[in-house]
Write a structure and sequence with these properties.
Keywords: Glycosidase, Hydrolase. The chain is an alpha/beta fold. Helix content is 39%, strand content 12%.
Length: 480
């Protein structure tokens, strides 16, 4: 029997989530080097342009706009924004560090002090309000030099550069940051390797081999970072981060059920098994064999994976996925990185993403049943068009309804026995969309006056959801 409201644990980490490349701006300030996000064009052409083989990683301002260059100017306005987070009652703030602010090219031996000092100021400001930072080390912004000169994560040398970067962060912020995540949505890399692995596939034929080799390098790098973090910061908690998409069979046809199971394991479990259990899953052997994938696994790699397992599992959840073995192009739906077929029982967002709060409860149970590790929802939210009324108000009841239903699903999962650490809705302040580079796809509790054409004052306004979420946090989830 389901309930309407739940009282969450006293130590539950309520907050919000963002990524450096989507809100900081100041893309050439403070000694920062260019990164992947800086060359990604804005607009609905983004994924098409960067997803095609042969993307040249160059900025062409005559042809495209680049909204990530300015973001929402968090780089200069962070004090104002963090004060708003504190007003909502945030206990935590999930953020990322821009790798190219710390190592502008990625392969330097010494870090950029201006970049390190910037994040010192961020962490000091968060501490002023007793907001606990949760820091993603790599969130879709590998330094551009590591792409153009090394080929991204296909190149094993990048492990060394990442380890140096991670150790630099741990040593610098050991007294300021307890919670860390290694790679954002690591399992999405095989679908869109340019975002997670920093390379443009040469062809569909080479995409799988290169992607899974790149993932192996990231697994080793992540494990090395976990080991270093535990040594440098005693008591630190270091997690992996998955985009979790529960996969349903279209019907009870056993062929579709088996297909859905295979997709579920490959997308949702493959990376988790390596990072949580410390070993490759058995089902990977057949997949590699059938797809001609031969991983270059060096001596000692498997030991490193076993020794560098994560302390908890963080995840993004936006939608579920419904699978059918033989589907036509007309049946394929839209989604976060991956598709599936339309689920007739679900409604969709303005961008075609299916809305399935029960899927969150299902996903949390699946993950906890498999791993028995604490879970942390570090992304969830509704991208929608928001309207500023004549009186300046933004009545985003649709966002409140979406989040309310997902918080209720979280409460149900806790009742089911799931150990859930916290909840940081995505884009707690409006920012540049990762998938489309649009500002009009808004997620935040805080409206930012910035538009797709680059116009706007950057003024911050509190939406109706701002006050609602403040009540949710203050009541520990009882007031929904």
């Amino acid at each position: 029997m389901t309930k309407e409201t739940y009282k969450f644990p006293e130590n539950f980490l309520w907050g919000g989530a963002t990524a450096a490349n989507q809100l900081e701006g100041a893309y050439l300030e403070g000694g920062k080097g260019l990164n992947l996000a800086d060359v990604m064009p804005g607009g609905k052409v983004r994924l098409k342009v960067i997803g095609e083989p042969g993307f040249d990683f160059k900025i062409d301002k005559e042809k495209y706009v680049y909204p990530n260059h300015d973001g929402i100017d968090f780089y200069h306005r962070y004090k104002e924004d963090i004060a708003l987070f504190a007003e909502m009652g945030f206990k935590t703030y999930r953020m990322s560090i821009a790798w190219s602010r710390i190592f502008p090219k990625g392969d330097e031996l010494e870090p950029n002090e201006e970049g390190l000092a910037f994040y010192d100021r961020i962490f000091d400001e968060l501490k002023k309000y007793n907001i606990e930072p949760v820091v993603t080390i790599s969130h879709y912004e590998i330094p551009l030099h590591l792409i153009t000169e090394y080929g991204g994560w296909r190149n094993r040398q990048v492990i060394e550069f990442f380890e140096r970067y991670a150790i630099t962060l741990f040593k610098r912020y050991k007294n300021k940051v307890k919670y860390w995540l290694t790679f954002n949505e690591i399992n999405g890399a095989t679908h869109m390797p340019i975002l997670g692995l920093g390379f443009s596939p040469e062809s569909e034929e080479t995409k799988l081999q290169d992607s899974f080799q790149g993932l192996h390098h990231q697994f080793v790098a992540s494990a090395l970072a976990v080991k270093a973090g535990h040594e440098i910061i005693p008591g630190s908690q270091i997690g992996c981060m998955l985009v979790y998409v529960p996969t349903y069979s279209f019907d009870s046809n056993p062929a579709n059920v088996m297909h859905a199971l295979q997709e579920q394991r490959l997308f949702n479990n493959y990376c988790g098994d390596v990072q949580v259990r410390g070993a490759y899953p058995a089902f990977a052997n057949r997949f590699f064999k059938e797809n001609g994938i031969n991983l270059d696994v060096r001596e000692g790699d498997l030991d490193i994976l076993k020794e560098g397992t994560v302390d908890f599992i963080s995840l993004s959840y936006y939608m579920s996925r419904t699978e059918k073995k033989d589907k036509t192009p007309e049946e394929i739906g839209q989604g976060n990185l991956i598709g599936g077929v339309r689920n007739p029982f679900l409604s969709t967002s303005d961008w075609g993403w299916e809305i399935d709060p029960i899927g969150l409860r299902i996903g949390l149970n699946q993950l906890y049943d498999r791993y028995q590790k604490p879970l942390f929802i570090v992304e969830n939210g509704l991208g929608a068009y928001d309207k500023v009324e004549e009186d300046g108000s933004i009545n985003d009841d649709y966002r409140i309804d979406y989040l309310r239903s997902h918080i209720q699903a979280m409460g149900e999962a806790i009742e089911d026995g799931v150990e859930l650490m916290g909840f940081t809705p995505w884009g707690c302040i409006d920012l540049v969309s990762a998938s489309t580079g649009e500002m009009s796809k808004r997620y935040g509790f805080i409206y930012v006056d910035k538009h797709d054409d680059g116009s706007g004052t950057l003024e911050r306004k509190k939406k109706k959801s701002f006050f609602w979420f403040k009540d949710v946090i203050s009541s520990q989830g009882e007031k929904l």
